[in-house]
Design goal:
Blueprint: E1 8-12, H1 16-28, E2 32-36, H2 39-49, E3 53-57, H3 65-74, E4 83-87, H4 92-100, E5 105-108, H5 113-123
Helix pairs in contact: 2-3
């Protein structure tokens, strides 16, 4: 990857206001951002764009976050893509389910925008020094 190529984050969430705020903050944090309004669109964009990391809501129409993770993890070209799950409700069962789904990290909504950026920098493979 060239020094001026930004890492791509795909934000998949059905809350337009959250997507707008999060996309703006992630973009200002040095990433390129693509968005999807539901899991089905998110899967299509993931396959087309091969993002460096995915920010994913759990409760979405068409394809929920759990089925989204299952489908990504079954695709050899995408299975190692880090996924950051954002959720409005967090229980121990949800944490276990997120780990089982292959999520790199889970954060609770409402979230701290700086914590999201720091998490993205940690889990995005291109952010690691070689």
């Amino acid at each position: 990857m060239g020094p001026d190529k930004k890492r791509l984050v795909l934000v998949v969430d059905d809350e337009p206001d959250l997507v707008a705020v999060l996309s703006q903050r992630i973009g200002k944090g040095g990433f390129s951002v693509a968005t999807a309004a539901d899991g089905e669109e998110g899967l299509a964009k993931t396959r087309a764009l091969h993002p460096d990391v995915i920010v994913l809501d759990v409760a979405m129409p068409k394809v929920d976050g759990w089925r989204f993770c299952q489908r990504i993890r079954r695709d050899p070209a995408l299975k190692d893509t880090p996924i950051l799950i954002l959720t409005a409700w967090l229980t121990n069962d949800l944490k276990r389910r997120a780990e089982a789904a292959g999520a790199a990290r889970i954060l609770l909504k409402p979230f701290d925008e700086n914590e999201v950026l720091e998490t993205l920098r940690r889990i995005c493979p291109a952010s690691k020094e070689v």
